[in-house]
Structure to design on (223 residues):
């Protein structure tokens, strides 16, 4: 089983709609979780850290489910500018390194 | 402006010709790392450094070297590049460690012919 797994998509989303996707991780000892956004051929940028209690930043909501070992990202009222690849990143489990998922590609359609 | 700067941004070169990709950060971060990104494989860590003179292998270190003589700089060296090292490379830094949000450079696209 891969360390971090994401469904690559693409997720074609009508403008204004809500889209949600999950990321599963294999190491139950993982400690920190992040969502990064990456535009085509650009550098990844931190979107949000994911806390145990869940957190929200504007139209974006992140959740952590430790029992089932997944994190989720929900985007409400999708904008054209939300089109990007969203990378799930997990830290910990004894190796002091980050593990990156391959990303969920989101395409917002007018 | 807080940033991670990589040079060059683009490079086309030939097999066996030594090259160095520089990485510099102005945020006084302890932790720096190098990644490569290939289609279908995602980001994979090459090397990382917890602080000056402390470096360690990531997931795919073969064919690469690094050094951390100063806190702000973390160059990636390809002593004898080969075509399978054609990739998009990112340098990243963070305060203290990889459990912190990473700041990425703009990326370096290397083509080895």
């Amino acid at each position: 089983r891969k360390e971090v797994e994401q469904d690559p998509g693409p997720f074609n989303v009508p403008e204004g709609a809500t889209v949600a996707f999950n990321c599963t991780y294999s190491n139950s000892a993982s400690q920190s979780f992040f969502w990064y956004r990456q535009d085509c051929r650009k550098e990844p940028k931190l979107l949000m850290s994911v806390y145990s209690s869940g957190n929200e930043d504007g139209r974006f909501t992140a959740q952590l489910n430790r029992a089932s070992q997944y994190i989720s990202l929900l985007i409400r009222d999708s904008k054209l500018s939300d089109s990007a690849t969203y990378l799930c990143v997990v830290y910990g489990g004894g190796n002091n390194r980050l593990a990156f998922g391959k990303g969920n590609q989101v395409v917002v359609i007018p | 402006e807080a940033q991670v700067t990589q040079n060059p941004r683009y490079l086309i070169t030939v097999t066996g010709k030594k090259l160095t990709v520089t990485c510099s950060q102005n945020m006084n971060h302890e932790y720096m790392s190098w990644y490569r990104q290939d289609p279908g494989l995602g980001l994979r860590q090459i090397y990382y450094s917890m602080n000056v003179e402390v470096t360690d292998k990531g997931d795919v270190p073969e064919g690469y070297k690094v050094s951390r003589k100063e806190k702000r700089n973390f160059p990636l060296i390809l002593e004898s590049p080969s075509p399978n090292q054609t990739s998009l490379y990112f340098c990243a830094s963070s305060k203290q460690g990889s459990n912190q949000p990473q700041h990425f450079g703009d990326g370096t696209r290397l083509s080895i012919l």
